[in-house]
Amino acid sequence: MEPLTKVTELAYALDTFYFLLSGALVMWMAAGFAMLEAGLVRAKNTTEILTKNIALFAIACTMYMLMGYNIMYPGDGFAGGLIPGFDLSFMFGGDHSAEKVLASNGETYYSGMADFFFQVVFVATAMSIVSGAVAERMKLWAFLLFAVVMTGFIYPVQGYWKWGGGFLEELGFNDFAGSGVVHLCGASAALAGVLLLGARKGKYGKDGSINAIPGANMPLATLGTFILWLGWFGFNGGSELKVSDIGEANAVAAVFVNTNMAAAGGLVMALITARILFGKADLTMTLNGALAGLVAITAEPLTPVPLLATLIGAVGGLIVVFAIITLDKLRIDDPVGAISVHGIVGMWGLLAVPITNAEASIGAQLIGLGTILGWVFVTSFITWLIIKLIMGIRVSEEEEWEGVDIGECGLEAYPEFVGAKGSAT
Question: How far, in Å, CA of 79 to CA of 288, rounded?
Fold first, then answer.
């Protein structure tokens, strides 16, 4: 066996470094979700939402190491790619030797450890989507228990079906960076939880009225959106997997540009749509428009030209405004709009792939969409229901009125602004 050449060693090192850097950008999206959600909830619920976001990241990392990664990338599966295998070798170090790289005939071009790091921050992203949708009325420990099941089992199984070489991959289902595998997955789990949880007190009147419950900190929400926008370059750009030759470098550049343009298109369209519908430049809709554009392009950020990427994002920005309005009319209470942004627009992103990718078929996209939605919603609903029966998932009315910060964490995020116990809104 010939030793690695200098060129091969350099390419391996460069692709590994790029993968790790991309993973670090995606990890920073956890901060984006935390800031976005902290800004869009009321002051009395801020500490708890921050606790959820940082705790879920640690749980996701642990469970994905123990179970998730071993399910998602087992090497072999059963029943035609429907049932994943289970390989524990990574947890005990695995084989990352130069000999293994050479034996792969060029198929291994970055460190296996880098692959795990990049994948684990994706599963944390999916779980972060759930956090905002169930905010302000869910028990902290019920949420964290669900995170164990979600990141250790529910997410990895459907991830295997596409990215681990399972039946959706064989079918020709296209999802470049996770409009379905990550975003629709997270939104489906969130929807199941919200349906069992119910709406926040005072959100919907008996007369059918819908009462707005403003967030406490719009600067934080805006900062969170900018952080997510930045992190998305690692999310989509890193999913190209390589950067060490001219073709791959050009592809990464195209993915970056298209990701950015889709976000811009989504934001502008949501801003205009909100102005037409409400007569005001609604900031929350604007922020969700940018995120919707990012979700929409995530399924295929490589094949569109920049103009089409902008339009795909713009459609996402249009959809998200009407989706948020529609869910409210259906009395499905989602404080941050996560189900609309990541779920409804995630579907659009998957269905938009054949517009620019000639290898994709609408049939395969529909099957992939339905499979992810069905699997995650049903398994999540069962998990939430079991947790509800065992320990309950909703705080008491008194705790909800006082704020879950006091009831769950015993600590207020903004104590200097509270005149009397429980008076923060």
Answer: 40
Q: How far apart are CA 62 and CA 48, in angstroms?
A: 21
Structure tokens at 240: 């190209």
**End-to-end CA distance of the chain, in Å?**
68
Type of residue found at 419: G
> Nearest-CA neighbor of 310 among 332, 329, 318?
318
3-state percent breakdown (helix, strand, coil) of the chain, nearest 5: 70, 0, 25
Three-class HEC string of 28-69: HHHHHHHHHHHHHCCHHHHHHHHHHHHHHHHHHHHHHHHHHH
Do 196 and 113 form a contact (C-beta atoms < 8 A)?
no
Query: From residue 290, how far is each of 31, 41, 268, 316 by CA, in Å?
Result: 17, 19, 8, 9
Tokens of 159: 């991830």
Q: How many CA atoms lie within 13 A of 7 on its CB side?
A: 2
Residue 422 corresponds to which tokens in the numbers above? 């429980």
Q: How far apart are CA 128 and CA 121, in angstroms?
A: 10
When pLDDT is averaged across residues 63-82 and rounded to a whole number, the result is 85
Domains of the chain, each with CATH number or no CATH: 6-417 (1.10.3430.10)
Q: Where does the pLDDT of residue 284 fall: very low under 50, low under 70, confident under 90, or very high at 90 and above?
A: very high
Smallest CA-to-CA distance from 198 within 397, 342, 422, 377 is with: 397
Residue 15 three-state SS: helix
Give the tens place of pLDDT for each residue, 111-159.
889 999 999 999 999 999 999 999 999 999 999 999 999 999 999 999 9
Three-state SS at 374? helix
Cβ-proximal residues to 77 (8 Å cutoff; 6+ apart), any chain: 83, 84, 85, 160, 164, 165, 166
Mean pLDDT of 381-401: 97
Q: What is this structure's pTM?
A: 0.93
320, 277 Cβ separation under 8 angstroms: no
Query: Tell me, what DSSP letter sits at residue 90?
Result: G
